[in-house]
Known about the structure:
One of its GO terms (biological process) is cell division. The protein is mostly helical. It has helices at 2-11, 15-37, 45-66, 71-93, 113-131, 139-158, 162-178, 183-204, 207-217, 228-239, 251-254, 266-298, 303-327, 345-362, and strands spanning 95-97, 100-106, 109-111.
Amino acid sequence: MQIGRMFRHLQRFDWLLMLGVVVLFILGIAAIYSVELSRADADFLLVKKQLVAFVLGIICLIVVAKWNFLFLRNWGKAFYLIGIFFLVSVLIFGTELNGTKGWFILAGVSFQPVEFVKLALLVQFARYFGEHARRRFGWKEIFGSGFLLAVPFLLVMVQPDMGSAAILLGTWAILLFFSGLRCVHAAVLSGVAVIAGIFGWLFVFADYQKDRLLVFLDPALDPLVSGYNITQAKIAIGSGGLFGQGLGFGSQSQLQFLPESQTDFIFSVIAEELGFLGVCILITAVLLILWRILRAAQLTKEHFTKFLLLGIFSLFAVQFVVNIGVNLSLLPTTGIALPFVSYGGTSLLLSLILIGIVQSITSRRRPGDDSLLSNT
Length: 376
């Protein structure tokens, strides 16, 4: 009986969405495998860890999809407060990696609390924007949602983790757009952003963060240090050609010229070794994922559900655009991973849980109807 119910539930999954996820993971695990080939002690530990994280993530995806997603609305405030507690705790008891004190390491397993905070903030945004969806969106609603963002944003900046802070800020900005932000609001907020940027440059940003921005504007300023990553990424992408140099045969990745090749610059590895064809497959999978999530939001009339889907869409869209933009030298280096592709167990686990939430929503929709099934 339970098996039959589970089978019927799986039948209602959005399998096009799952296809996009699986394609991205396969591209990612192939690139990570290739990166590991270049190491003298190639024990493929990163590949093994990523496979374990994927299996655990798929299990979490299925469990989350089986639950009724509406429980998130009831636990949203608790998740948000727990996330704030984690961010404060990691500043006191956390471990510093790559200049960022944003990790807990227990028994050799690392956990980045900001990944949980992304989910908690999405739920709170969905609650807030959903509750104000019928009202004329104005400054009161902008400040209210901005306050929800401000606390985790500032705590993440203190770590400092500019990449994660940019993701939180970008997700909020896209949700403001979907909520009906007017032109006058956008103009004022843009002005405030410019002033905040100037203030940050003068009093907040560290020297290496300023160097990243300057090198983005002119990579020739410091081609061997601050501009090294961008330069090597461009060389890798350009050398890929139409069909690539072959998996495990990319000169930039195999000779270890390309830093952070399994995380921030994994797109460049794929472009170099699988070529323009591999990039087209990756971009198609990305667009497929974003389209299916946005389509689910369009078919949903219930406000909390709609904004939860839009929040997930926004979070993925920001990460996809920024990571690929950095690899193409269109954006300054931020350290944002490519979802489902870059190495990182915590990021992969969260991404699959978010897909599980989307599946929980889509699998409860009656065929040809906007309403949702109430069964758990």
